[in-house]
Amino acid sequence: MILVHSRAELESVLAGKATTLVPTMGALHEGHLSLVRAAKELGNPVVVSIFVNPKQFGPSEDFTTYPRTLEDDLRLLEAEGVDVVFAPDVDEVFPAGHQPISITLGQLDAVLEGAARPGHFAGVVDVVGTLFTIVKPTAAIFGEKDLQQLAVVRRLATEQFPGIQIHAAPIVREPDGLALSSRNRFLSEAQRKAAPSISSELELVAKQLAEQLAAPQREAGDLVSTTRALLDDAQERINAHGVLSTEYLELVDPNTFEILDEPRPGAYLATVVRAGATRLLDNRAVGLKP
Ligand code: AMP
Description:
This protein is α/β, with parallel strands linked by helices. It is built from 11 helices and 9 strands. It is globular. Adenosine monophosphate binds next to helix 2 and strand 5.
């Protein structure tokens, strides 16, 4: 495994080879490693980038306290047989005079994570587009854990990097259902104990929605009000732990992030739950086949 820090070193190591890129912010866990394994399966050399991107953190967010564990990360990536790790400084990715890469995000930036974190997706687009420009991979892998980010990246690739295939990898969870996240280490004992209710409530609501859709006797508008009630009840149960507070729980189209008022094939449940200062993201397909 070769570790490089600069664009110039990377360029000479890759020498124009077809590669698969796995972008990360480090503090790696099994979720990240599942992306690496999916990348390896594609057959080309795998490049993992480790870069905590300041542009995707708001002024009051956790950029300075975001965990940085490069030594451990390198050990894990070496064991996975990664070919190249690109761990640049901020100035290397965004040198003076950097022209930001941008796309029109529209709805993707107006709701849920876009609304909660102004400027976040513009920062994601800039860093992912810049990494695509530097690494020039033929494929890149992203986690469904960040479902709205995945939609943003897919749009970026379609519009500006049509030669890069975007692959999605499923969410890796703890045995009790909590989605793995670099931020889980910040949970208190009580928060950690309550946190699996996020995924179990998503599972329950998905099941309830599927049942509602299958139920025969319905009047116009019933499904809309039942859907809202099921989403609200799940939030209340999550909040009842006392240590968790739901920011949102919505039914969405995973490509456009249109908020849906009733279930339809392909719909996802998307949520963010606060545990103190830590925001826990999760989502799940409702499971209705097109
Ligand atoms: P991050 O380091 O948080 O920027 O994440 C890097 C990549 O890993 C993103 O594509 C995430 O969606 C993905 N990822 C993070 N957590 C998980 C998880 N629990 N399961 C699968 N992928 C994940």
